[in-house]
Amino acid sequence: MKKQLGFFLAAVSLLLILNGLTKVHAQESLYKRLGGYDAIAAVSDDFIYRLATSPDLKKFTIGLNADSQRKLRQHLVDFICSATGGPCFYIGKDMETAHTGLNITKEEWNIGAGLLAETLDKFKVPAKEKEELLGAVSSLESKIVGK
Length: 147
Ligand code: HEM
Description:
The protein is mainly α. It has one domain: Globin-like (Orthogonal Bundle), CATH 1.10.490.10. Helices cover 70% and strands 0% of the residues. It is built from eight helices and no strands. Helix 3 packs across helix 4, helix 3 (36-53) packs across helix 6 (106-122) and helix 6 (106-122) packs antiparallel against helix 7. The longest helix is centred in the first third of the chain and has 24 residues, at 2-25. The radius of gyration is 22 Å and the shape is elongated. The structure holds protoporphyrin IX containing FE (HEM).
């Protein structure tokens, strides 16, 4: 009986140690670390507002009717949700198709990236997550700029 109890306690200790190790090594998705769907929706709304009111960038969205604005907003939320490991499906166009014909310059891209950084600061996104999201966005530059 004593032997069985000893074995049982040893097994439980091992499980607890393994569980702890898994937690240390498992990195939560960027989606979760950003705060999930509601946080990403709030970030997207704030970023779109900045784009739409920026003296340099508002020309890109000024002609969109309310339905197109809603579609852009929802597609942006779904795109970021999906790209950061969240449970959303992005069903919009690929980035090159979506931005071809807009002729976004490198200067305008930099202004847009600055606006996104302002949004992330407003929501107090920690430095690590901010860097990861901005890094993921900067990898899209060649698909969006000069098209
Ligand atoms: C200076 C930067 C940017 C400008 C001026 C810009 C502008 C636009 C505009 C005007 C549209 C709407 C096109 C239409 O409905 O006819 C659009 C679509 C979209 N953009 Fe951007 N964009 C920029 C950067 C980005 C970035 C960094 C992302 C991703 C994080 C992004 C994601 C999207 C998505 C998901 C759509 C929707 C595509 C669809 O509805 O199929 N854009 N963008």
